[in-house]
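Mods, move this if it's the wrong board.
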Amino acid sequence: MSERAQRAELLRHRNRSTFSRVYLLGGIGCLEFRTILSRFSKAALLLGFVVFGLFASVSAQAQQQSPVPGVSEAKAELKTSLGDLSTLYQSDVERLEKRHQQAKALFDDGLISRVEFEKDEKALADARAKVEAVAKQIAEANKPALILDATVDTLIGAASNLAWSTGNNRIDTLIRQYGTQYGVDPYLIYCLMSQESSFMSGATSYKGAQGLMQLMPGTAARYGVTNPYDVAQNIKGGTRYLKDLLVMFDGRVDLALAGYNAGEGAVMKYGNTVPPYQETRNYVKLILKRYGKTQPQKSTKGTS
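Not the wrong board. Structure tokens:
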């Protein structure tokens, strides 16, 4: 091969090597670019998820902080009623404490019997229990609402369908038994009993009301209750009385409750309306808040 031919061949070899190196470097650069782009896409996607999560969290908090229409007003009204009732019960306790001190002095001097003194002492204990019960209801009312997407009407309408229990199987059974027998909603009996005695069968008020449903001696006698502290007799007599009040006031639960608390005569005296007694009005309001109805379901069962 001539010298000129050798030089030409060497030049072609050099050009081929240079082209291979350029192609290789270009491939490597392209690969690195694709890797960087892939990593950037993943980072952007992750950032998007983080931002979306933060937005969803803020939205949920905003919904929790937004008051449901009507709930705030209902809770405020309930707290006011409970506060008024607490004040009344506290006044009773203070009055009974003074009377108890006087009774103790009379007992120490031998002027009254132990039975009279212990009866007075029990009335004071029951009054204090009522104050504690209302305090617990106030504490519950101060808790934030857990249900955010329901209206007050929805909550109230479901009230009678709630599972309820006094904590005593025998009392629960008797409430259902006599409620069915006399055509009175057992849940209404339960709500009334809770307000009357907090399910204490031995409760006695300073006015003389006795037992679970706080029957006055005259009412107990009217319905054949010989022992108002007997659970079955008390529930039966109280349920019959409540049934008669519902019939008397054409199924109006509010008026029946008012009659149970203040006497049917007081309701009729004020033109078949809830009497203007603060205790009675709070009593009716609190039970209705729990029960959730002013009109009972029509029932053909049960007789007085």
